[in-house]
Design a protein that fits this description.
Largest sheet: 7 strands, antiparallel
Helix content: 25-40%
Distance between the termini: 6 Å
Number of helices: 16
Structural class: alpha+beta
Number of strands: 23
Shape: globular
Number of domains: 2
CATH architecture of the largest domain: 4-Layer Sandwich
CATH superfamily of the largest domain: Aminohydrolase, N-terminal nucleophile (Ntn) domain
Strand content: 25-35%
Strand order of the largest sheet: 3-2-4-1-10-9-11
CATH class of the largest domain: Alpha Beta
Length: 478
């Protein structure tokens, strides 16, 4: 759950191409609004009006950055690319706002990226030694440089894109706009989601999740396959598949547990249904006698429903989230006050009850403890905490901001000790061997839980070159 800074996914991307000039900025705005859950630090839109690029990017939420006045300044065009960001590589600054725009000898491009390169530091070193000058601390600029370098020799932008992919390791879903084309690609492992659809007026749209396709009135067509490059232009859409099938599919399992919106469908699996299954598994593997099942809003609600269905224990709403706290909220110095402002317990619902409390994860344990205390103060008799993911034991190199084991409570304490620390009566995690039950297949990455990484572990992430490591930020917590 989002309480302060903590567990986040890197970003959301969006692109649109129209058969003729249209208000593509407005369409991108709605698409980014639907993807806001994927990043709340910054956002941006670049519009292509017959080869002339116009853009607006800034720190803040989509509704804060793009007022009606700002949107009206962006021209009509036949293409646009948009981005919402929560950075795991590179800090929070206007320089790191995306999409990144590049001018080069053969033209212009705008690039939006979701994911994290595991070899970003190595590539950046190589580029700097060859004379490249970086303006941001984001690995997205590294990708832009690699594509630009190949474009100077390649016959087309899509060929340059393909050649650049040969050098990129790790997670990336990309949307690139050139003067004449909209190009998107997903890394060969398929770590991060990407899909596309079409509107009845002929517009094609590309987005991180299907919920954004639906939000702009388009019909979902399909997911972009791992390793696939799609090229959209005035002639339609073309698929390039030279990178497909080279790696075993490894979609991040936490897309289903937490990151994605419940109404999205990723690689044929409904996110809501996967979370309900997680709750059902918890009820089977960690049963308990209780009076009521509640979820921590919003990420624990679907799993709580599943736990209720499988256990027969009634489902209820015991915690209310203040939905009107945005990025401009000034957090009080007392961290307990933050929880009380952002969450409140319904005393009439929980008082005197044995409660099953469902949440998506425990990172440091501090927020879990505060939520348990909140329910105790509201009169809950017992609190049995159930977590719809396994314990976090290892860093993630593919776009989730767990880059160190230093602050992972499960690395230092047993389950019984964590239970006592957060003040719960019992604690149960989703068994790691049950992860594939969520999706019905084994084509996912769960390295942060079991430590089996699909790519070589980087010797250096390069995250501390220009600012403090992200692991020293105030963490999400649960």
């Amino acid at each position: 759950m989002h309480l302060g800074k903590g567990l986040h996914e890197e970003c959301g991307v969006f692109g649109v191409i129209a058969p003729e000039a249209a208000d593509v900025a407005q369409i991108s705005y709605y698409g980014l609004y639907a993807l806001q859950h994927r990043g709340q630090e910054s956002c941006g839109i670049v519009v292509n009006d017959d080869g002339v690029f116009s853009s607006h990017k800034d720190l803040g939420l989509v509704g804060e950055v793009f007022s009606h006045e700002i949107l009206s300044r962006l021209p009509q065009g036949n293409m646009a690319v948009g981005h919402v960001r929560y950075g795991t590589t590179g800090g929070t600054s206007r320089n790191n706002c995306q999409p990144i725009e590049v001018n080069h000898q053969k033209g212009r491009m705008a690039l939006a990226h979701n994911g994290n390169l595991s070899n970003a530091a190595q590539l950046r070193d190589e580029l700097e030694l060859s004379g490249a000058i970086f303006h941001t601390t984001s690995d997205t600029e590294t990708i832009a440089y690699r594509i630009t370098k190949e474009r100077l020799k390649a016959p087309s932008m899509e060929e340059a894109f393909s050649r650049a992919m040969d050098t990129l390791d790790g997670a990336y879903s990309l949307v690139l706009m050139s003067p004449q084309k909209l190009i998107c690609a997903r890394d060969p492992y398929g770590f991060r989601p990407l899909c596309f659809g079409k509107r009845t007026d002929g517009m094609y749209v590309v987005a991180s999740e299907s919920c954004a396709i639906q939000a702009v009135g388009a019909q979902f067509i399909r997911d972009v396959e791992p390793g696939e490059i799609l090229v959209f232009n005035k002639d339609g859409v073309t698929s390039r598949r030279e990178h497909c099938g080279k790696k075993e599919k490894k979609l991040c399992i936490f897309e289903y547990i937490y990151f994605a919106r419940p109404d999205s469908v990723i690689d044929g699996v409904c996110v809501h249904s996967a979370r309900v299954r997680a709750g059902q598994i918890l009820a089977q593997t960690h049963p308990v006698q209780a009076d009521l099942v509640i979820g921590v809003p919003d990420s624990g609600l679907d799993a709580a429903l599943g736990f209720s269905k499988a256990s027969g224990i009634p489902y209820g709403i015991g915690l209310i989230k203040n939905k009107y706290i945005g990025r401009t909220f000034i957090a009080p110095a007392n961290r307990m006050d933050q929880v009380k402002i952002k969450l409140s317990a319904i005393a009439d619902v929980v008082k005197g009850k044995r409660i099953v409390l469902i949440d998506d994860s425990i990172v440091r344990g501090t927020t879990s403890g505060r939520i348990v205390q909140l329910l105790r103060e509201a009169g809950a008799q017992e609190i049995h905490l159930r977590i719809s993911s396994p314990p976090f034991l290892h860093p993630c190199y593919y776009g989730t901001d767990i880059d160190s084991e230093d602050h992972l409570i499960a690395c230092r304490y047993s389950i019984d000790e964590i239970c006592r620390m957060v003040g719960a009566d019992s604690l149960g995690y989703l068994p790691v061997e049950q992860l594939q039950t969520l999706t019905g297949n084994s084509g996912f990455c769960g390295a942060c839980f079991h430590g089996r990484y699909p790519t070589p572990i980087p010797t250096s992430t390069g995250k501390d070159r220009f600012e403090r490591p992200l692991s020293k930020r105030e963490d999400r917590t649960d």
